[in-house]
Design a protein that fits this description.
InterPro entries: Cyclophilin-like_dom_sf, Cyclophilin-type_PPIase_dom, CYP23-like. With 226 residues, the protein is α+β, with helices and mostly antiparallel strands. It has one domain: Cyclophilin-like (Cyclophilin), CATH 2.40.100.10. It contains six helices and ten strands; from the N terminus they run αββαββααβββαβββα. It has an eight-stranded antiparallel beta barrel. The chain has a two-stranded antiparallel sheet with strand order 8-9. Strand 8 and strand 9 form a beta hairpin. The chain starts with a helix and ends with a helix.
Length: 226
């Protein structure tokens, strides 16, 4: 009887651990990476294409079009968010027609169970849940009150030290927003694919092996057929 109780308790514990793991499971990042370059340092982030596919497609297209170049962080609220301005109004450089067309699209609210914790990327929007366009926040702390209310679409993969630097800039309050007193410009952006980078490494290794093989074959040829 005692052994049965131990077994039941053990199974219950395993089930509980499995449930906790399932609830806390982080979605898989896609292979694309985007880098925002600022005077405070670089911030690299990746996307959650299985969580918010429409949002990811939209933001990544804007990046590829150069839409975020010369844009800025209009909001820096320490411990809460660093928010990128809407592309249509936040850039200092004029937009071309293709950039403007993409920037003005409204994206359906892709709300999920992914938690708003430090490093998460979350779309900005108005009261309408389907009003997100191109402004988004990088979380500087945990914000559970945003869960299932704002669309999470990715996370910061490198550059947390840059976020920490942003948290130290002088700010002023305007209504509900805490804003930096200086313009924090996104000087430039670029993107790359981690899978392609991995393949390039493999190709490099293969080239070295082939070169080494060629040298060995040539050495044997010279030895056997002088």
């Amino acid at each position: 009887m005692g052994n049965k109780r131990i077994l039941i308790v053990g199974l219950a514990c395993l089930a509980f651990v499995s449930i906790v793991k399932a609830l806390s499971h982080e979605p898989e990042l896609g292979s694309a990476r985007v880098v925002f370059q600022t005077s405070y340092g670089d911030i690299e982030f990746g996307f959650y294409p299985t969580v918010a596919p429409k949002t990811v497609d939209h933001i990544f297209k804007l990046v590829r079009l150069g839409g975020y170049n010369t844009n800025h962080f209009f909001r820096v609220d320490k411990g809460f968010v660093a928010q990128v301005a809407d592309v249509a109004s936040g850039r200092s450089a004029p937009m071309n027609e293709e950039q403007r067309k993409e920037a003005e699209k409204k994206i359906v609210g892709e709300f999920s169970d992914v938690k708003h914790v430090r490093g998460i990327l979350s779309m900005g929007r108005y009261d309408d849940p389907n009003s997100a366009q191109s402004s988004f926040s990088m979380l500087l702390g945990n914000a559970p009150h945003l869960d299932r209310q704002y669309a999470v679409f990715g996370k910061v993969t490198k550059g947390d030290e840059t976020l920490s630097k942003l948290e130290e800039v002088p700010t002023r309050r305007e209504g509900i927003f805490v804003m930096p007193t200086e313009r924090i410009t996104i000087l430039s952006t670029y993107y790359y694919d981690t899978k392609m980078e991995s393949c390039e490494e493999e190709r490099s290794v293969l080239r070295r092996r082939l070169q080494a093989s060629f040298v060995e074959v040539e050495r044997q040829r010279m030895k056997c057929f002088p």
